Amino acid sequence: MWTPGPLEIIVVLVIVLIVFGPKRLPDLGRSLGRGMREFKDSVTGKDKDELPEASHVEKPEPTTVTAEPTTVTAEPTTVTPASEQKS
């Protein structure tokens, strides 16, 4: 069976980078990871609706912490055109 070498992997990654661009690669990897995880869970029989067996243990009531309200003021932002920026 054929196994890709390091050069072939680099060529494929460069082609993927050219086709999808650097902005879409994180989203592409994230959706690929989700799909692989869902496939693995469906093959092993795990389901999100199933509860773990230790769920029958009573859990203590969570304590509520109240925070004092704070005031946040936004500073005005200024945009400098590229023609006026110093390099």
Q: Which features characterize this protein?
A:
mainly alpha, single chain, 87 residues, flat
What does the model show?
The structure is a single chain. The chain has 87 residues and is an all-alpha fold. The chain is built from two helices and no strands. The protein has helices at residues 6-20, 25-44. It starts with 5 loop residues before the first helix and ends in a 43-residue tail after the last helix.
Task: Give the helix/strand layout.
Layout: H1 6-20, H2 25-44
Q: In DSSP terms, counting alpha (H) and pi (I) runs of 4 or more, how many helices? A: 2
Low-confidence stretches: none
Major sheet size, sense and barrel closure: none
Counting helices, strands and paired strands, the structural category is mainly alpha
Number of strands: 0
* SSE sequence, one letter per element: HH
Mean pLDDT: 79
The fraction of residues in strands falls at under 5%
Q: Report the span from N to C terminus.
A: 54 Å
Rg for CA atoms = 25 Å
Helix content: 40-55%
Question: Which descriptor suits the 3D outline?
Answer: flat
Question: Could you write a compact summary of the structure shown?
Answer:
The chain has helices spanning 6-20, 25-44.
